[in-house]
Amino acid sequence: MTPENLKGLLEPVGELIAGRSLDESLQRDLNERFPPTGDQYRTLFEACQAAIQAGWMCKYEAGGIRYGRVIKPAPDLHGYSVDVVDMADIKGPHHRHPNGEIDLIMPISPDAQFDGHGAGWLVYSAGSAHYPTVTQGRALVLYLLPNGAIEFTRT
């Protein structure tokens, strides 16, 4: 597994999200097209686990959170960047999504939740903000950011 392989696996997702508003409709469409019970989800989850084992994904650590940007904003992903975090029962740093955020939640612990959501897709609209929080165990979260935009804030 390499960043280029991962980018290839995400191209169908990029095609679905291209030009779309980041809203509940997109969240519903992502969960219908790429459900947690489907092959695409399983393939992405396994790819992320392999990349972490290989040492190039989630290679940084701060405050108990492993993280890293693995793909910079890319034309073949319609201007989205890709970051992945590995979190276990922790509240992360507050941040704002100037252009929105699309999260793929991949629980490692069966009951783990990210911001109150289990396995699947979660979409935050432009201008939204939160403390990313994993409860009930450990989860990987792959997130796509339009133009790579994220603003860490002080609250």
Task: Outline the structure in words.
By secondary structure, the protein is an alpha+beta fold. It has one domain (3-152): Jelly Rolls, CATH 2.60.120.10. It is 26% helix and 39% strand. It is built from three helices and ten strands, in the order αααββββββββββ. The chain has helices spanning 3-17, 24-33, 39-54, and strands at residues 60-62, 65-74, 80-91, 95-97, 101-107, 113-114, 120-124, 128-130, 133-146, 151-152. Strands 1, 2, 3, 5, 6, 7 and 9 form a seven-stranded antiparallel β-sheet that branches. The protein is globular, with a radius of gyration of 14 Å. The termini are far apart.
Which helices and strands occur, and which strands form pairs?
Layout: H1 3-17, H2 24-33, H3 39-54, E1 60-62, E2 65-74, E3 80-91, E4 95-97, E5 101-107, E6 113-114, E7 120-124, E8 128-130, E9 133-146, E10 151-152
Antiparallel strand pairs: 1-2, 2-3, 3-9, 4-8, 4-10, 5-7, 5-9, 6-9
In brief, what are we looking at here?
The protein has 155 residues and is α+β, with helices and mostly antiparallel strands. The protein has helices at residues 3-17, 24-33, 39-54, and strands at residues 60-62, 65-74, 80-91, 95-97, 101-107, 113-114, 120-124, 128-130, 133-146, 151-152.
